[in-house]
């Protein structure tokens, strides 16, 4: 097996220089980098997994995971996959500290970041789009932490990588679905988790963009639900009461079950609901004909990719190939929703 020492001797450089090039850590002159890469390729160099594991255990990389998952069923699949990945990577000495929170309280998220940042080498976070949180993420990056945003992004921050869906495209897709499913005169309400989440704002924006050329579209109201089914129920009941002409509801994030229950309670089977995420409660309401379609954003893939990107950086020293790993928004109706489970 070819070693880093052998490549260093053949290229006339130090082992540290070869290590920096092969692990993409930079700070090597371009001509030397080309020489080392070509020599490694010529000799068919392959890293030694056992050596990497030993080196990683010496570094003892620690990852903090902070997700606003409490009370939000969507995150169950994502976190389950992340836990499996953490178990697999633990043989390399990678440890994970898990933290959760409820809702979109920026101050609370900052408090948890402060609690974590002295203990960790990297952070996977589902961030609130708030200047306080952005400042905390930037502080982490400045302190040498590797930061991956998951499921929601904060583009204004200096995070290293985003893993999640294309929210703008998701909103456009939902709008196109409602145009196909609803009568020519479309009177819609929108229920979203929080305007403090960038993705929720982007879905609303994409939805409105698609509706611009609709010949008879009215946006009746936009209500926040904190991604809580009880709040979604109350918001939907209020919207129906104040706007009896409503014939469509777009549920931007979680809250599809509560929204559907409100439609059921009001005996308004004429209202078409398009929601996100094929969680069990959404599927239940699809079977009852209350939710006509849902958009699937691959929670398992999101969790798997975020952990892999973190592992590759902390253990292998490899920076992500992309600044954003985007999962496809896929349309699910009752007939194909079982594909996700």
Question: What portion of the residues fall into strands of 2 or more residues?
Answer: 15-25%
Order of helices and strands: HHHHEHEHEHEEHEHEHEHEHEHEE
- Looking across the biggest beta sheet, what order are the strands in? 2-1-3-4-5-11
Structural class: alpha/beta
Oligomeric state of the chains? single chain
Q: pLDDT average, as an integer?
A: 92
The radius of gyration is: 24 Å
Estimate percent helicity. 40-55%
Task: List low-confidence stretches.
Answer: none
How many DSSP H or I helices? Answer: 13
Major β-sheet profile: 6 strands, parallel
Distance between the termini: 43 Å
Number of strands: 12
Commentary on this structure:
The structure is a single chain. The radius of gyration is 24 Å and the shape is elongated. The protein is α/β, with parallel strands linked by helices. 46% of the residues lie in helices and 18% in strands. Strand 6, helix 9 and strand 7 form a beta-alpha-beta unit. The longest helix is centred in the N-terminal third of the chain and has 16 residues. It has a 6-stranded parallel beta sheet, with helices on both faces. It has a 6-stranded mixed beta sheet with strand order 7-6-8-9-10-12, sandwiched between helices. It has 13 helices and 12 strands. The two termini are 43 Å apart. Helix 1 crosses helix 2, helix 5 packs parallel to helix 13 and helix 10 crosses helix 11.
Give the helices and strands, then pairings.
Blueprint: H1 4-11, H2 15-22, H3 30-42, H4 49-59, E1 62-67, H5 74-89, E2 95-100, H6 106-117, E3 122-125, H7 131-142, E4 146-150, E5 161-165, H8 167-181, E6 186-192, H9 198-211, E7 217-224, H10 229-242, E8 248-251, H11 256-265, E9 272-276, H12 280-287, E10 291-296, H13 299-314, E11 324-327, E12 330-332
Parallel strand pairs: 1-2, 1-3, 3-4, 4-5, 5-11, 6-7, 6-8, 8-9, 9-10
Antiparallel strand pairs: 10-12
Helix pairs in contact: 1-2, 1-3, 5-13, 6-7, 8-9, 10-11, 11-12
């Amino acid at each position: 097996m070819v070693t880093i020492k052998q490549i260093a001797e053949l290229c006339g450089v130090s082992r540290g220089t070869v290590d920096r090039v092969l692990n993409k850590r930079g700070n090597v002159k371009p001509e030397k980098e080309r020489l080392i890469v070509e020599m490694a390729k010529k000799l068919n160099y392959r890293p030694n997994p056992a050596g990497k594991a030993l080196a990683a255990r010496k570094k003892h990389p620690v990852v903090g995971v902070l997700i606003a998952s409490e009370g939000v069923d969507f995150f169950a699949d994502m976190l389950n996959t992340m836990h499996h990945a953490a178990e697999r990577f633990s043989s390399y000495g990678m440890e994970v500290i898990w933290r959760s929170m409820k809702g979109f309280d920026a101050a609370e998220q900052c408090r948890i970041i402060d609690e974590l940042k002295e203990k960790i080498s990297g952070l996977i976070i589902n961030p609130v789009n708030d200047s306080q949180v952005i400042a905390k993420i930037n502080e982490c990056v400045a302190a040498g932490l590797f930061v991956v945003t998951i499921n929601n992004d904060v583009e204004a921050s200096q995070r290293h990588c985003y893993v999640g869906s294309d929210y703008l495209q998701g909103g456009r897709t939902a709008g196109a679905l409602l145009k196909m499913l609803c009568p020519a005169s479309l009177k819609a309400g929108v229920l979203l988790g929080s305007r403090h989440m960038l993705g929720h704002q982007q879905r609303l924006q994409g939805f409105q963009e698609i509706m611009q050329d609709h010949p008879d579209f009215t946006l009746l109201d936009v209500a926040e639900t904190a991604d809580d089914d009880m709040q979604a129920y109350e918001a939907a009941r209020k919207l129906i009461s104040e706007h009896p002409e409503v014939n469509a509801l777009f549920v931007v994030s979680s809250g599809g079950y509560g929204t559907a229950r409100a439609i059921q309670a009001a005996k308004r089977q004429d209202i078409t609901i398009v929601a996100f995420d094929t969680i069990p409660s959404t599927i239940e309401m699809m079977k009852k004909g209350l939710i006509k379609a849902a958009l699937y954003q691959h929670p398992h893939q999101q969790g798997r990719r975020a952990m892999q990107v973190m592992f590759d950086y902390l253990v292998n020293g490899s920076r992500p190939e992309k600044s954003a790993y985007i999962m496809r928004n896929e349309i699910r109706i009752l007939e194909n929703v079982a594909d996700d489970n």
